[in-house]
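To: structure desk
From: M.T.
Subject: fold request, one chain
Message: Could you run this one when you get a chance? Sequence is below, nothing fancy, just the single chain.
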Amino acid sequence: MSTCCRSTVLCYGDSNTHGQRAMRGPDDVSRFRSHVRWPGRVSAALNPKVRVLCEGLPGRTTVHDDPIDGAHKNGLRILPAILESHWPIDVVVLMLGTNDLKTRFAVTPADIGRSVERLLGVIAGSRGGRDGEPPAVLLVAPPPIVETGWLAGHFAGGAEISHHLGASYADVAARWGCDFLDAKGVAEVDPVDGVHLTEAGHAALGAAIAAKLRTMLG
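Reply: Done. Structure tokens follow.
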């Protein structure tokens, strides 16, 4: 890890990285302010030593083209461009998988774990880190969801699967030798829609990720 100048951390995720508030309907797209979102809290905790970049897209999946919301939701497609755009990157904080729980994708915890491995392979094969090396990775298993509110129909059956993602991601992290954090028990989703983090959830997750990054960045 580079010890000169500022380190760069790239947060790559979905709506919970973007800072989406709990949704009461399809047109409810309000967003927490930057200092409330967990990447903003990480930035506040680590500044001035670390530059934190937020690349969160609502609806982003790990590797799936969304047949309803569009192919641009596929996290695998855009990741190489994101890595090149922000070079050099010291750490990628990767938190994806929640949108894979949508009923339309019909996947298992093992499937989602394998999909995450595809993303790790792209990062490991990139030259997005310092001196042409790949960046380090902090893999975050997203918090379990609850099937409630207007999103319940989109995530039918996903709540049970979500509780098993931590174990699946831990196995992936061990195989790839990357750092790992399970957001289960750290941050909770808002009972309004069962998917998006509360303000308190963002605070808790930001603190936990900042603590991991302090160790990783030395």
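Reply (cont.): Residues 7-217 form a domain with the Rossmann fold fold (CATH 3.40.50.1110). Let me know if you need anything else for the meeting.
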